[in-house]
Design a protein that fits this description.
The strands form three sheets. The protein has a four-stranded antiparallel beta sheet. The chain is globular, with a radius of gyration of 37 Å. The protein has a domain of 87 residues. Helix 1 packs antiparallel against helix 2. Strand 9 and strand 10 form a beta hairpin. It is an alpha+beta fold. It contains 18 helices and ten strands. It comes from Florenciella parvula. This is Nucleoside-diphosphate kinase.
């Protein structure tokens, strides 16, 4: 740096002075030798050699001194640099700790689904928020035309859509626990069912049975998730397998679901909401305030159960079911961030939870990648990111996210 360079320049000053003095002496000797009819000219080389030797000795001594001082300077500089790096590292660690500790607010994205967008149903959902101490930060509407044009529903249901129309059953990552649930429900191994050609994605299932999306959805709506005769099981977040007319179908509800969002006059009514995590956990927000995915089993008093119980009074055209269950809510603070980015065009930097993720040391590139629900290594195996973070509060999501990236 500038201080080190100045020190080195000061160290070189004696060397420059010695060199100038030797140069003057050598010049004087040469002049006298040349003006005395070459008298003593034979001694000129001797004087030159002596002068050169003297200069070399001074130069060597000065160089050694400079090198020594420069070495000490760089050792000191290196020590200061390491100390600075240690302080920066400590500040970074404290910043991450402070960021996690400050994540005391849960922030979700919620929308009333197209089939339930009525003034009465919207008012009911807002009343449930108020009763639970949940603050509505903003709200608005998105039309079918916008949803279709901007492909918002396809991005929103990216993982669901890919399982329903893009991936073959053999390409699906079914966890051991899900395979065990499949065997318990249907009496056969998942791998055997796939090998025998008994499993289809939603699009393939429609083709196999010769029906359209609406007909598949109607059959799907009759499936049972619990009790005797169970024929619908959940493999993971947005990942379902149902037995329809003798075959197993993955996410059979999706084909009809998209058209429900993209066919005018359909629309959604959305909310961004926040609440203190210490007063309401994310799990209770989904389970008690919103209610279970299946409205018939949702807790009494929850939004989904109330919409199911009073659907005619609320102005709905048909009884709610697992797909059309009145309202959607983010499954975790991370998914809420991704949904705000998709539906509202929110910036990760400016979002309440996005800023927390960045502040905790999770890069923007990682956030973008995670919005697609990738399979990430955790506990010795690849798992759905969304599944790993489901129903966790903001602070816990940050902690687990850091573990996932190895910090």
């Amino acid at each position: 740096d500038r201080c080190t360079m100045a020190h080195l320049l000061r160290s070189l000053r004696p060397l420059r002075q010695s060199a100038r003095a030797l140069s003057t002496v050598h010049a004087g000797v040469a002049t006298r030798a040349g003006t005395s009819n070459n008298q003593g000219s034979a001694n000129a080389p001797l004087f030159g050699a002596l002068a050169a030797a003297s200069a070399a000795a001074v130069l060597t001594a000065s160089t050694v001194d400079v090198e020594s001082q420069r070495s000490h300077a760089f050792v000191a500089f290196d020590s200061d640099l390491k100390a600075l790096e240690a302080r920066v590292s400590a500040v970074e660690k404290q910043t991450v700790k402070n960021t996690i500790n400050a994540a005391t607010t849960n922030a979700a994205f919620v929308f009333v689904k197209p089939h339930a967008v009525t003034p009465a149903a919207i008012a009911l959902v807002k009343a449930k928020f108020a009763a639970a101490g949940i603050n509505v930060i903003s709200e608005g509407d998105l039309s079918a035309e916008t949803i279709d044009k901007d492909m918002l529903i396809d991005t929103h249901y990216g993982a669901i859509a890919s399982k329903a129309v893009k991936l073959n059953p053999s390409q699906l990552n079914v966890q051991p626990k899900a395979k065990a649930a499949f065997k318990d429900a249907f009496g056969m191994e998942w791998d055997d069912a796939v090998a025998k050609g008994m499993v289809y994605n939603a699009m393939q299932g429609c083709e196999k049975l010769g029906i359209d999306g609406a007909a598949m959805d109607a059959k799907w709506g009759t499936l049972k998730k619990k009790g005797p005769g169970t024929n619908l099981i959940k493999f993971g977040g947005g990942f379902y397998c149902g037995q329809v007319d003798g075959i197993f179908v993955i996410n059979g509800f999706y084909m009809q679901m998209r058209s429900a969002y993209t066919t005018p006059p359909a629309a959604i009514h959305w909310f961004t909401v926040e609440w203190p995590a210490a007063e309401l956990s994310w799990e209770d927000f989904r389970g008690k305030v919103l209610g279970a995915t299946d409205p018939t089993t949702a807790e009494q008093g929850s939004a989904r159960r109330e919409i199911f119980n009073h659907w005619k009074k609320l102005g709905l055209k048909s009884v709610p079911n697992t797909g059309d269950n009145g309202v959607h809510a983010s499954a975790s603070p991370a998914e809420a961030l991704f949904e705000r980015m998709n539906w509202l065009g929110a910036s990760c930097d400016d979002d309440i939870f996005g800023a927390s993720m960045l502040g905790a040391g999770i890069s923007k590139a990682t956030v973008e990648e995670w919005s697609q629900d990738p399979q990430v290594p955790f506990d010795g195996r690849n798992q759905s990111l969304f599944d790993l973070l489901e129903d966790m509060d903001a602070k816990d999501v940050l902690k687990k996210s850091l573990k996932i990236i190895g910090k």
